[in-house]
Specification:
Radius of gyration: 21 Å
Shape: globular
EC number: 2.7.11.22
Catalytic activity: L-threonyl-[protein] + ATP = O-phospho-L-threonyl-[protein] + ADP + H(+); L-seryl-[protein] + ATP = O-phospho-L-seryl-[protein] + ADP + H(+)
Largest sheet: 5 strands, antiparallel
Keywords: ATP-binding, Kinase, Nucleotide-binding, Serine/threonine-protein kinase, Transferase
Structural class: alpha+beta
Helix content: 25-40%
Enzyme class: transferase
Pfam families: Pkinase (PF00069)
Length: 319
């Protein structure tokens, strides 16, 4: 029996970086899975017989060594002549689609529950010296029970201390930390924490906090809210490659004018993550000790936001 024949195709679940993600059911266990299909022929190069994109190799190698309740589990890897399939546990939809499907901002306790799960996952990743580097609502998966999980590790990488030089062209623009936008060649776990701060704001606002359309516009969007940073608030900022003393000078604004916070603890928590200086930004491990997360409990999301079951279609002929 071909490995792929063990699964009944239920339909497309979404688009991945290098191909389509399908919802499928394991005939033996009856459990739903997500199949990420990667076409290999696009990646054949001279002397490269494998044709597997490096991001897929990176994702497989990282996920095989990770086991955490808030990180999507890689169940299996299957290869056909011209395709690679990654078999993941299935969750109903991503956070971006969930937010799009709901009319109101998320309830306070759901935000708290989601943030605790995400911070726990991040603390686990960082303790294993892995940066996610592409945290955004599209890469967070949610289910009807209230679980949220980190997914899509195509841009992730291991880091070592002292920090080596990495590409700063990572993290989708709206969730990119200011040090990356200023051309930092050396960075660490704080870039993931900043991204989660932006995501939390989006849960509370139902729209992106810093929706820039270019690197400079992204920086200015941040400056207009957080204030243009100088040495007094961010020691060493003027040493970044893309820092300009001629940046327009904006004063910081009161975040409560933009975000309807439920409590002071909630506001303080988001500010711990949206701190300019990466060395002063709280780590995931430190955030877990805050009062805001101590009272978090699993909270069910709004059921109406979830799609109805997809009709079964067992044919794999065009997949």
């Amino acid at each position: 029996m071909d490995k792929l024949d063990r699964f009944i195709k239920l339909g497309r679940a979404g688009e991945g970086t290098y191909g389509v993600v399908y919802k499928a059911k394991n005939k033996i266990t009856g459990k739903n899975v997500a199949l990420k299909r990667i076409k290999l022929e696009k990646f054949y190069h001279k002397g490269d017989s494998e044709g597997v994109p490096p991001t897929a190799i990176r994702e497989i190698s990282l996920l095989k060594g990770l086991r955490h309740s808030s990180i999507v589990e890689l169940l299996d890897v299957m290869q056909t002549t011209d395709k690679l399939y990654l078999v993941f546990e299935y969750l109903d939809l991503d956070l971006k689609r969930y937010l799009d499907n709901t009319e109101m901002p998320l309830e306070a306790e759901l935000v708290r529950s989601y943030m605790k799960q995400l911070i726990e996952a991040l603390a686990y990743l960082h303790s294993h010296r892995i940066l996610h580097r592409d945290l955004k609502p599209q890469n967070l998966l949610v289910d009807k029970e209230g679980h949220i999980k980190l997914a899509d590790f195509g841009l992730s990488r291991s880091f070592s201390l002292p920090t080596r030089t990495y590409t700063h062209e990572v993290v989708t623009m709206w969730y990119r930390a200011p040090e990356l936008l200023l051309g930092a060649k050396m960075y660490c776990t704080g870039i993931d924490v900043w991204s989660l701060g932006c995501i939390m704001a989006e849960m509370l606002m139902k729209k992106a906090l810093f929706p820039g359309d270019s690197e400079i516009d992204q920086l200015y969007k941040i400056f207009k809210v957080m204030g243009t940073p100088g040495e007094e608030v961010w020691e060493g900022v003027s040493l970044y490659p893309d820092y300009k003393p001629t940046f327009p000078q904006w004063e910081s604004v009161d975040l409560t004018n933009m975000i309807k916070f439920h409590t002071q603890e909630e506001e303080d928590f988001i500010l711990h993550m949206l701190t300019y200086n990466p060395s002063k930004r709280k780590t995931a491990k430190e955030l877990l000790k805050t009062n805001y997360l101590k009272t978090a409990k699993l909270t069910a999301p709004e059921m109406n936001a979830f799609p109805h079951d997809i009709d079964e279609d067992s044919s794999w002929s065009n997949v």
